[in-house]
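Hey, can you fold this one?
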Amino acid sequence: MLKIDRQTAIEQELTKNGSVLIPNLSKQLQCSEETIRRDLKELESIGKLTRTHGGAYLMDKYDKSYPTKLRKVYYPDLKSRLARQALRYVRENDVIMLDSSTTCLTLAELLLSKKLNITIITNSLLICDLCNDQVSNINLICLGGSFRSRTSSFVGYHTTDTLSGYFADRSFISCPKVTLGQGMSDNHLDESKVRANMLLHSQQKILLLDHTKFDASANLLFGDLKSVDVIITDECLPTQWTEFCRENQILLDYALNADGDTSI
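Sure. Predicted structure:
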């Protein structure tokens, strides 16, 4: 296939789906992944797409969030480690809130495998589908609202209004970025409001963050880190973070790798 035809096919896939994965394009267009990477680089240079780890996507004019299809392939091992650590906080008959992050999706998969009798309150369509597809002991409460296809989630006034009628034992959320000075931040206003309300309406507030999300901010600030009870992450944080957590009585909990050691 000629390069121009290949790149046209890539643009068509982007227009259709909003994002593309390199392995899928390689198989579909019958060429090497390295060829696809070169094509994506050229297309990005002329403003046709935005490249990211493992693929590319069309940047929304007002939304910098990565599409869920791409987020699901980022750092799967780290998400599994964070989910395993988060599982330790869940008790039988708990009511928990899970946001639309792919880390919480990984936690939901783990919760289903453990056959715990719990209630999950979520705005994630993927978590709802997961619970629907498997016979489980999960009591599922889907918040509903306006569907946001980019993140496969429900957001908006209906979502937060429904959420305000519940109070959970624990909430588990992730977010794009955190800083000590600005706190938690997001790329989408409605998504940030759901996360803020989950923290507000739960007894224990748990933040799940891999090491790439620290010390940078997204555009929408939605919460002070001092309101969080636990931060679960995968690498030891700098001294200023450990001091901040100690001063504000935040438990800094490091997920273990497969060998039982913290990643440093």
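Residues 259-264 have pLDDT under 50 and may be disordered. Let me know if you want another pass with a different chain boundary.
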